[in-house]
Amino acid sequence: MVAAAVYGVAQLLVLSAPTRSVRMSTSLLAIAVGAYGCGVAAALLELAYTRGAAEATGESLTEVVKTASYTVDPVIEELAKLAPLLLAAWNVRVRRQWGLTDYLVLGAALGAGFGLLEAVARYGLDAGRAIPHPAGGWAVPDSLRAPYIPGAEQVFSAWFPAPQGALELGERAPAAATSPHLVYTALAALGVGVLLRAKGWRRLLGVLPPVAAATLHALTNYAAAHPMDRDAASRVDTFEGALWAVPLVCLALAMAADLRQLWRAKACVPGVLVHAERAGRSGLGALASYGAWCVPWSTLITLRFARLRRSLLYGVSGGSAYPGAEWLHRTVVRSAAQIDASDREPAWRGAGIRAVAQAARSMRDRHRRGYVLVSLALTIPALLLLAVGSFPSAADLQRRFASGAGLHVLIGFGIAGWLWTGFQLVRLLRAWRATFAFPHGEVLVIVRFRVWTALGGCLAGALLLLRMMDGAAPESPVIRNLHLLDALNNLAAYLGFALLLLSLLALFPPGGGLGFVLAGGTRAGAALITQEGAVYAAVYGTLGVVLMAASGGSTESDAPANEPQGSTDPATSDSVGAARERKVAELTDGTVPSGAPGKPGMKVTKPGAGTTDVDVIGGDGSYIAVGGPAKARNLAKFGEKCHILKYAAEQNGVRAQVYLEEGTPESALNVARRILGNENVHVFVR
């Protein structure tokens, strides 16, 4: 069942790659949000409505639930599945940086998670009754139209497979059904994207997809509630046969609109094209060529750069500037410069598994391993029950957890997992606050998705504990006569605890650069990291260190990335240095002590350490060193030069400053800041 839900989302992830800006891990996290956030919210809302309606009208609860299944419940469920998208897009950074493709893919993932919850709640404990089908998959013999769990052959040969379906009597070659919740929510999410991104009267078109999704959902449920209505069944059979094509048509429309916006934005945003694109190559060809230099590292860097640039361009297409757009632009410009500087084979000679491992160690969070190990340990009983025990050959595991010591172990772990989820929720709420103004919208989305997953797990755990405190047996249903296709009517309390434990798998603290940003907040304005550096770390992570190393060592000259690369002509190097020194002298109202910009400056010495050049003497007498991206080639040497400059300036009672051209790696900037102080390190545009 899990494979079916994930595979349907994976299909969209692959097809949407040319215009998608959200990463794969965020889309997979949305599956967990669909199960734990949307599923719990829909269950509570339906519970409140059906109980309230039964009490107000005097009708039996069973009749109210039946009527609600095709009147109110489809609307509740579709709104619950869209709620995470709407709440995330409430933030202007997220709303502006998502394209229609992103809305559609994340909506499909939310729907897939919701459908997975229904399937597991209904059939998660039926491994002992399941009968293998000769063509693959398993049938649960409880009616003439038996529930069917597709096998690997059916899942991987279908478009957007559902976790469960129905097996007609005598059917010899069953196929996986199309996941209705994935389709409905993908369709509705496209409408949300149009509502939030379109202008003028076109916004009104965004209302149609959610209405269509709720209508189709209601018609399907009506046919299920009235099996004798042949007309309704015929209509459902008609559109279910073409249901698989709906996400493909929606995706084609979304990608066409997004490509148009990207092409327009590229033409008006400066500095975001790599050299090969400026020379006339297509974006796909230029980035594919770069990604082939050192597979998989350069390939992954290319994919991350492409997604980051799309986020920037989607935001630009919205019109006026929004908070954080400048930092995102600077990060994209810097990344494009680094790609230009490393777009040749010699730059990647030192890149390999060892170099990447060393970079990973530099970003390692010493607390992360402990959090991961605790979460993994707590999920062991749930994995045994629902992963290993879900196969008929291992069904005895489910029976062991249904009573006796196994049941007590599962409930004990479930309570511990509930408390651990609450602790994780507190940490995530702090991260939410720390990253509230972060420039890159995807970081905000990741934090919010994890918060909603943890919040759903906490609410579900509280409901389970209240039911048990009321005297309900662990094997009794948590909620009776509730829709979600009556799935939760079969949800035993101990199965609920197992599902709660599995939510911890979605709450692992992220590693790499994203983990660094979430662990420490943005630290914007602090001495440790700038907003630009935080965005860079969050997007590239460990590979950002690899990219900085490749771009810093790709040429003998100190030219920035938009200069011709690979030249060792002194004239080229001198002209670049001269332009920089003239610019800094102009900015500081200073002079070039050499008298000839681009030539060696005034020599200063620190006994026992060596010498360095003062490139510009500022208007206030400051000793200023000027440089660019190549300062990151040898950070130790650059640090020594900064120490010498600082010593010489102090001996003469003046300030020591460094001016580095835009595009210089953050590693070089941080070295200079650590030695000279933030106020004495400047980034300039030549």
From TrEMBL:
Keywords: Membrane, Transmembrane, Transmembrane helix. Residues 564-575 have a biased composition (Polar residues). Residues 554-579, 588-607 are annotated as: Disordered. The chain crosses the membrane at residues 26-45, 103-125, 181-198, 205-225, 241-259, 371-395, 407-429, 449-468. This is PrsW family intramembrane metalloprotease.
